[in-house]
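Incident log entry.

Two folding requests arrived from the same account within the same minute. Monitoring flagged them as a possible duplicate submission, but the sequences differ. Recording both here for audit purposes.

Request one:
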Amino acid sequence: MANTTFNGPVRSQNGFQDISIDATTGTVTTDSTYATDATIGGSAKVTDGISNKTGVVAATGTILQMANGFSAALVKNTHYLTPADGNAITATLPAQADSEEGDSIIVDYNVLASNGQTMKFGTAGEYFAVNSVIYKNTTVLANVNAVLVANGTSHDFLNAVGLTNAGPGIGSRIIFTYSGAAWRVEARLASSGTAAAAGTSVFATS
């Protein structure tokens, strides 16, 4: 059938379907449907951003708190809280081969990290995107932040290191987003206590 262009709205009482036809068998498959609800068989990509009154997009689903001593893979498109005891964990990111552009993971701190305890995030051999960043307090008793940038070639872990009066403190947030080629991380690490010490969280090599 030839392409048809309409000058005006196209209306249907029962929705629209996007189909594919098998070239050999002629079998018709409904890939996507558009009605009151939309079912998309492939990936949905927003090229110009999502606009609303505040510019903030609400998270969906349940926020999960990691168990104390967490050592497992994070699930993409999930919102986490760090463990209640604030102690060390090893949180593996989903493999690049199993990830799609736009996948994301959020990790929030609702307790401060314990002194000397490291929360490790990453996957061995799968390097963070070169524009990944850690924002942390770095100047003793001064409101000055350091920006650490992943090198894209050897940094496959973010080590969030707990330090008294340095954080990561309550309100810290780490966001992982998948670009289609690599995971990018943006970590905004709040200080804790008197903020009298410089944070020691870093990008690292496994």
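Request two (distinct sequence, not a duplicate):
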Amino acid sequence: MSVTGKRMRKNPHGWMLAAVLLLAAAGLLAVHSHQTAAVPPEEPAQEEPSVTVIPAEPELPEEPVEEEPVPEEPWGPVAESAPVDDSYFDDAVFIGDSRTVGMYEYGGLEETSTFYASTGLTIYKMFDSKIVAVPGQKKKITVEEALSEKQFAKIYLMIGINEMGTGTVESFMKAYGEAVQHLQQLQPDAVIYLQAIMKVTTERSGQGDYITNEGIEARNEEIAKLADDEKIYYLDVNPLICDETGGMVASYTYDGVHLKAQYIPIWLDFLKEHAVE
């Protein structure tokens, strides 16, 4: 039996298109699955811990810085003033060695003032030496006893030349300082005038023994430091009796150490012009 008519052809592109669509769908599904797996589930938000703020300690005020005190300069000699007359020395006592003996003998104050002076007197034996005459008696008493029996308003001390060959400046000043303190104990109301040790002539100073102007100057510098310009004063007559070499004027002395009688008034006038009222 014969069949007559046209044979149906298969479409070669149809199956290819279906395959492409199928592959595309599979790819989209794979991508979606990958993205879904890669994104982790969101964690619940955690609360931040509370922070306690501690207030800062208040700043303490800075302590004031104390400035170091400026060291005071040693007191200088008593300033020159209008001269006093001899009556100023009515209630004064002069204590010293042979130089003060010269003031007693040639200064004109022997009837006005009191003198406890002796040749060879030293600071070391000043209070123990029996050099004070007792009126109406032949015996003599010590300076310590005399100062204990009578009070004075002024004390003039000139001592130190005889000690030049003994000890050092330090040992001398230790004894000198203690003597001044003891004078204050015995005479609490008195003004004390510490007189610089008189220098010797430049020739005498250069003889090579223990008496030198350098040694005298070293002691005078320390004596000046004891003055307080209240109860203790420092007096230095050396500028008036020394020449350009720094030593005592040669014509003012008979032995290079002691003033001649006619030059004692230079010393006395100096005391009158440097008195504390």
